[in-house]
Every structure is written in C-alpha cells, then in structure tokens.
C-alpha cells in the first residue's frame, strides 16, 4: 500500500469460501480523526485501492461511511458484513438506513433491503462455464453476470464487473448485487462469485433480505 496513507486501517476478507480462502478485501478505518471529511476519505479509499473502504464514525452505534476508489456509497454489502464482524455489532448504520446484524459462529449476517443497493445490470447466462469464460468488459455498465449451477438447490455462479474505470476491473464478492438477484428471483441463494467467494442470501417476510458470509482478518 502507498506509504502516504496516514490513517491506520484493518484489512479483512469478506465472503470467504468454505476453505477460508478468497473473499473480497476490505479496508476498515476505526479511528477516523485523520480522515474527518469526505475529501480525505475519498483520497484514502483511492490510495488503498480496495473495492470498498469503510470508515467507522461511531463504533458503539455502528455509524459507518463507505467509499469505493471513486465514489461514496450509501450502502454496500461486504463493508457492512465486515464491520459487523470486526466490531461485533448488532446494528450497523450506513447512510442508507439501519442494518441489523447477527453472527452464528461461522457466518456473519446483515438484514437489508434490495432498494438500498446501487443499480446493477443483472445478466443471466445459460451455464456456469459461460460465466467462467467471460473477459473483463470495457468500462461502462456495472455488470453482474450469473448462471445457475443447480437451480433446484439455489446454487448460482456469478462474476461482477464494476465498469467504473477506477482500477477495480472485477469485484470478487458483491453483497449489493446478491441482494438484487435475490429480490428478482425471490428465493434463497448460495452464490459462488469470483475466484471462489461464497455469499448466502435469504428473503424475509417483510421485504428484507438476509445476506451472510465468512470473514477473516488479513491484518490489524
């Protein structure tokens, strides 16, 4: 990482596979005094180069602020799962609204609404092998490519291409897109994304969706 970074940060892998590998890397800044405003946070997120970096403004109430290398986000799945795991929170509060969290030992879960997720193009392919064979598309639409691996069991193969031109050509694990796909299909899903990350979802009776995954610490 760039030596100019002046805020301490943790690094987590969120939505790890069953073997503990893979997952989407996340930067977590727990002491935000060195990055007090949007400009300094955006600069740090760009410098770190993770798909998202989350800033914890109030660890007791779970108030957080989320940035990609190029934009601030009101909601994103893997930063909230990661922050809930790291801080052992029951509630996380991004700008989008109150997000409940729980841990069951292996998985950390958040409960959110699909309408909080930024727009994504969800494109279905005929087979998982077609998704595996995709080349990174040129910058443009935010593409979530998916196919059934086992439709009866709710198993999905997916890859995500943000298309923002900010250095993140492919997103290893994307909670927001998983919420959108779950809302579209209206069923629980077991998603394998990227190189081998795993995301689990389950729609609730009140329009909410649970999103869960494994988290491991890379550095503190």
Topology:
Elements: E1 10-16, E2 24-29, H1 38-48, E3 52-58, E4 63-67, E5 72-73, H2 77-87, E6 91-92, E7 99-103, E8 108-113, E9 121-124, H3 128-132, E10 143-150, E11 155-161, H4 175-185, E12 189-193, E13 197-203, E14 208-219
Parallel strand pairs: 2-3, 9-10, 11-12
Antiparallel strand pairs: 1-2, 1-14, 3-4, 4-5, 6-7, 7-8, 8-14, 10-11, 12-13, 13-14
Describe it for me?
The protein has 220 residues and is α+β, with helices and mostly antiparallel strands. The chain folds into 2 domains: 10-91, Diaminopimelate Epimerase, Chain A, domain 1; 121-214, Diaminopimelate Epimerase, Chain A, domain 1 (Roll). It contains 4 helices and 14 strands. Strands 1, 2, 3, 4, 5, 6, 7, 8, 9, 10, 11, 12, 13 and 14 form a 14-stranded mixed β-sheet that branches. It starts with 9 loop residues before the first strand and ends with a strand. The relative contact order is 0.19. The model has no long low-confidence stretch (mean pLDDT 94).
Which keywords apply here?
single chain, 220 residues, alpha+beta, Diaminopimelate Epimerase, Chain A, domain 1, 2 domains, 14-stranded mixed beta sheet, 4 helices, 17% helix
The total number of structural domains is 2
Average pLDDT over all residues: 94
Find the CATH topology of the largest domain. Answer: Diaminopimelate Epimerase, Chain A, domain 1
Classified in CATH, the superfamily of the largest domain is: Diaminopimelate Epimerase, Chain A, domain 1
Give the end-to-end Cα distance, rounded to a whole number of Å: 14 Å
Q: Which geometry do the CA atoms define? A: globular
Helix/strand-derived category reads alpha+beta
Q: What's the architecture of the largest domain, going by CATH?
A: Roll
Q: Calculate Rg over CA atoms.
A: 16 Å
Low-pLDDT stretches are none
| Secondary-structure element pattern, one letter each | EEHEEEHEEEEHEEHEEE
Percent strand: 35-45%
- The total beta strand count reads 14
- Supply the number of helical segments: 4
CATH secondary-structure class of the largest domain: Alpha Beta
The biggest beta sheet, please?
14 strands, mixed
By oligomeric state, this entry counts as: single chain
Q: Which percent bin holds the helix content? A: 10-25%
